[in-house]
Amino acid sequence: MAHLLVTGGAGFIGANFVRRALAAYPDGRLTVLDALTYAGNRANLAEVADRIRFVHGNVCDADLVDGLVRDADVVVHFAAESHVDYSLQDPRPFLSSNVEGTFVLLEAVRRHDRRLHHISTDEVFGSLPLDGAERFTEESRYDPSSPYSATKAAADMLVRAWVRAYGVRATLSYCTNNYGPYQNVEKFLPRQITNVLRGRRPRLYGTGENVREWTHVDDHNDAILRIIADGRVGETYLIGSDAQWSNRALLELTMSLLGRPVDEFDVVPDRPGHDLRYATDSTKIRRELGWRPRHTDLADGIADTIDWYRRNEWWWGPQKDATEARYADIGR
Ligand code: NAD
Ligand code: TYD
Q1: Is 138 a catalytic site residue?
Q2: What is the per-residue pLDDT across 36-52, written as a single tens digit (0 to 9) for each?
Q3: Domain 3-178+216-239 - what CATH class?
Q4: Most ligand 2 atoms within 8 A of CB, residue of 205, 211, 277, 324 to mutate
Q5: Contact present, 179 and 189 (Cβ < 8 Å)
Q6: Is the minimum distance from the CB of 80 to ligand 1 under 6 angstroms?
Q7: Is 288 an annotated catalytic residue?
């Protein structure tokens, strides 16, 4: 396999991707570039540490990025500030990592004519009405609601422009909400699971009617591997499992899998500008690249995830109090 450069490879999806890519291509070369923000953790890569090169650095560092891109064949760009609630509290780092970081990477990819796969999110398309059947497609209009999704949308626009203007060989994918091992405890499922494991009550925002589509992180990463192998340059691909659940229903399912009464949670003030519903039509990647999710039973996937958090308190324990202190500041 080619030499892969993975930005953000010490984060949740990136670290799972690194393990998956090495399993798929045992002889592959792989370099991770990660700034090790609060969300990056070298422990996420401990099992594969001797098979990769790890570079501690920022994707905005043009000299560093230039050398790493020159040495690689394919760049997979996960590095980003990723949490909506934090973006509402302090947007600045999102501008820098998500927008400027993507710009710096694009310039290096352009100079050295390297293949790029850019990781985006279905959140760039904004909010669907709660009561309709409409789903996002690759043709949906960009309409981001939060500083997080606005900066991801801006990064996507740069990628699309660099493809058109400079012929950069890039593909782009928008996945739905991911779940699985090594997800930061700030996100919905790990926050609720670790709250229960710590004897705290889960926290549901607002009415809890908001709908998200839940894709297992390994299914997301398999889709990315398919796009890198056979995706058409310049194309965009939606990645989604079709498992659309309201936050309330998902929390009730999670509580029952944890063996707790399903209504043992607190309702807290809603997130400002909270997108009502995300849902994707991922026909294109299924037809063109033969991808389909393997984790089709969400209850099974969540049970496995709960099991992972039960067994790995050493991993999430040290982050938990600081995360909840930050939520206390936000009021959620
Ligand atoms: P994460 O916050 O867990 O990890 C992000 C990683 O990027 C961390 O290791 C962090 O240290 C690193 N990073 C941040 N800024 C950096 C910088 N300036 N330079 C170098 N490294 C930097 O995020 P995640 O959930 O793994 O998301 C990864 C990507 O997938 C993001 O681009 C995100 O927008 C996208 N995405 C996430 C989801 C989801 O459900 N989590 C869904 C769709 C798309
Ligand atoms: P999150 O994991 O932050 O992902 P995103 O905002 O990118 O979709 O949140 C998923 C959903 O869960 C979102 O609708 C907000 C809601 N939520 C809660 O109800 N309680 C919580 O404690 C958190 C973190 C999120």
Answers
A1: no
A2: 999 999 999 999 999 99
A3: alpha beta
A4: 205
A5: yes
A6: yes
A7: no
Rounded-to-integer distance, Cα 47 and Cα 18, Å = 10
**Tokens at 226, concatenated:** 């398919």
Residue whose CA is closest, atom 24 of ligand 2?
188
Ligand number nearest CA of 251 is 2
Q: Where do the domains of the chain lie?
A: 3-178+216-239
Q: How many CA atoms lie within 13 A of 105 on its CB side?
A: 34
Percent of the chain having pLDDT more than 70?
100
Atom of ligand 1 nearest to the CA of 179: 40
Q: Render pLDDT for 262-278 as a digit per residue (tens, 0 to 9).
A: 999 999 999 999 999 99
Q: How far is the CA of 260 from the centre of ligand 1 (A)?
A: 31
What residue's CA is closest to ligand 2, atom 20? 204
Q: Any catalytic annotation for residue 182? A: no
Which has the minimum average pLDDT: 25-29, 168-172, 205-209, 221-225?
25-29
CA-187 nearest atom, ligand 2 = 2
How close is the Cα of 164 to the center of ligand 2, in Å? 35
